[in-house]
Amino acid sequence: MSAVLSGFSGKRILVIGDLMLDEYIWGKVSRISPEAPVPVVDVTRESYYPGGAANVARNLREFTDHVAVMGSAGTDSAGQRLMDLLAASHIDTSAVQQSPEFATTVKTRIMARNQQVVRVDRERVSGPDLDRAASDLDRVISASDAVIVTDYGKGFLTESLAHEVCRTVAEHGKVLAIDPHPHRMFAWPGAAAIKPNRAEAFQAAGLPPSEPAADVLDDRPLLQAGRRLLDRWNCGCLLVTLGEQGMLLLERDNEPYPIPARAREVFDVSGAGDTAIAVFTLGLAAGATPPEAAELANQASGVVVGKVGTATVTSAELQETLG
């Protein structure tokens, strides 16, 4: 595992998807509002982080210097702040479509005593400039070892763009990993891996949700959903994230592989899925088997949920978990 981790630094990864800005307003609560039964938060500071697909790129930058993003952002103040944050992290934004016609998605979390009081979303679905995306894809994919597609349902990923991504990835022989949106059943031919969470897996499989079984391998509805998605998506493997139960890796010709959760304490699950897909894909690109890559992704997620806010895990922290 350490040998695989040491190979992360030379990998070049492209992230395609919905770019967002995560805003955190930090404060303290000392009273209830006289206007309504809600807490009054006295603001002490604000912080901003790349969110959505941009957070996947931020996670990747902890392990490699070669990260690029493709998505859309507005020319509004939020969009400019997001672009500045990406530039400060030395993430290649040459394939980002920035236009006054886009409204940058902003997720604002109001935090008091390290607890989220409320989240406010500002968003407007915006489609891509397909002609520009098609012209950028060949350039950025040819310069990458792997491609991660993260669909948050905000409009950048369309069926036409998904088809073009799969065609270009296949043409260049790159690793393709998908973090899908459950309500958008795009085909991903040639994908090495697809990573839904439990709820997304049931929705995408068209099955009613069920309560988790104590033993993941005894969870027949989950295994049924996973097998259906392996057939429907025709991918190399399916990695289902299960929260406190860890993960379940499904491959067509192998037995289901459960991976218990590694978190010691859970403070904030924001962005844990972004960490998982980033590390899992890096593992595959570095030559790990799917179980090895899944183990690394699980370890990384266990570290990041122990932090408050949209956080990342460093290479040193992940190495420490390996002993």
Mind sketching the topology for me?
Blueprint lengths: L1 H5 L5 E6 L1 E14 L6 E14 H8 L5 E9 L2 H12 L3 E8 L5 E8 L2 E8 L7 H13 L3 E5 L8 H14 L2 E5 L13 E2 L3 H8 L14 H14 L3 E5 L5 E5 L5 E3 L12 H14 L4 H15 L10 H7 L2
Parallel strand pairs: 1-4, 1-8, 2-6, 4-5, 8-9, 9-10, 10-11
Antiparallel strand pairs: 2-3, 6-7, 11-12, 12-13
Description:
This protein has helices at residues 2-6, 53-60, 77-88, 130-142, 159-172, 198-205, 220-233, 272-285, 290-304, 315-321, and strands at 12-17, 19-32, 39-52, 66-74, 92-99, 105-112, 115-122, 146-150, 175-179, 193-194, 237-241, 247-251, 257-259. Strand 12 (247-251) and strand 13 (257-259) form a beta hairpin. Helix 2 (53-60) crosses helix 8, helix 4 (130-142) packs parallel to helix 5 and helix 8 (272-285) packs antiparallel against helix 9 (290-304). The longest helix has 15 residues, at 290-304. It has 323 residues and is of the alpha/beta class. The strands form two sheets. The chain has a nine-stranded mixed sheet with strand order 5-4-1-8-9-10-11-12-13, sandwiched between helices. Strands 3-2-6-7 form a four-stranded mixed sheet. The protein has one domain (2-20, 51-106, 125-321): UDP-N-acetylmuramoyl-L-alanine:D-glutamate ligase (3-Layer(aba) Sandwich). It is 34% helix and 28% strand. It starts with a helix and ends with a helix.
